Amino acid sequence: MKEGANRSAGLWFPRLLLLVAMVGAIEAPASAQTESDFELWGALFFTGRVFEKTPSPSFWFDTHARRSESGTVYILRPGVGFAFAPWGSIWLGYAWTPTWVDATGERQDEHRVWEQLTLTSTQVSGLLLQSRTRFEQRFQTGPTGTAHRFRQFVRLNYRPKQRVPVGIAFVDEVFVGIQGAGWAAQGFDQNRVFLGLAVYAPEALLRVEVGYLNVFLSRQPNRLAHVLSLNFFVSFGGRARGG
Question: Domains plus CATH for the chain?
Fold first, then answer.
């Protein structure tokens, strides 16, 4: 039964990956003005399960630092979850996103509550396919109202063999504002596409990904960020259940 469910998930992931990549490619009309800049992004992701075998409680924490020409953004995002199967988990968490604006020296705070469904497939040897569906409720200091946002993330990692420490990582994520406060973008908000190298530690607990991230934001005028991105992933597989 588990093999059948996993195989079914494996068939859906390539289709989902293709769909999101196609949606992400739909940007503003060519006639629209677009501003561009260069940015540096760094992140650390720490995830794990309490128990080695599912079902199991799970934990999540990621932190980010992002430097642009106009300021610096930080993100602290803890969460708790439940891995209901080796290929699936659900999550609930909070995020604090302070932004320091260079021009004024002021800090702008955003707070988020987020819910997430994560699905993973390794049906094809050497390939990791992952889908992350997230909903956010966003609050800012100053502007009133709650903004709701949908995010669809897909990942494809290719590692030729376990003994090869380097692979390729591709990520696409689409952001859509669905309703809420007037201060947030409605409809298509942004798209992020990452392509880079993945370096694996021998013990399989650590993975480092470095590469190019393209961020398109639907604004007036539109914005295009060319990002050098460095990400660290630490994963804890859980412990055996006690007797």
Answer: 2-26+37-236 (2.40.160.40)
pTM of this structure: 0.85
Closest to 165 measured CA to CA, from 197, 201, 122: 201
For the record, the structure tokens of 202 come out as 């021998």
- Enter the tokens of residue 7: 């195989």
For residue range 231-242, what is the model confidence (pLDDT) as tens digits?
999 999 889 987
pLDDT in tens, 37-51: 999 999 999 999 999
In this structure, how many other beta carbons lie within 10 angstroms of the beta carbon of residue 106? 10
Q: Which amino acid is at 222?
A: N
Q: Which pLDDT tens digit goes with each residue over 207-226?
A: 999 999 999 999 889 999 99
Residues 6+ apart with CB under 8 A from 128: 120, 121, 122, 155, 156, 157, 158, 159
Please classify residue 202 by burial: count the beta carbons closer than 10 Å to its beta carbon, then call 0-12 exposed, 13-18 middle and 19+ buried. Answer: exposed
Rounded Cα distance between 28 and 38, Å, is 20
Q: Is residue 7 within a helix (H) or strand (E), and if so which, with residue range?
A: helix 2-24
Token code pair at residue 161: 């063999």
Question: Which residues are CB-neighbours of 30 under 8 A, at least 6 positions away?
Answer: none
> Stretch 86-115: mean pLDDT, rounded?
96
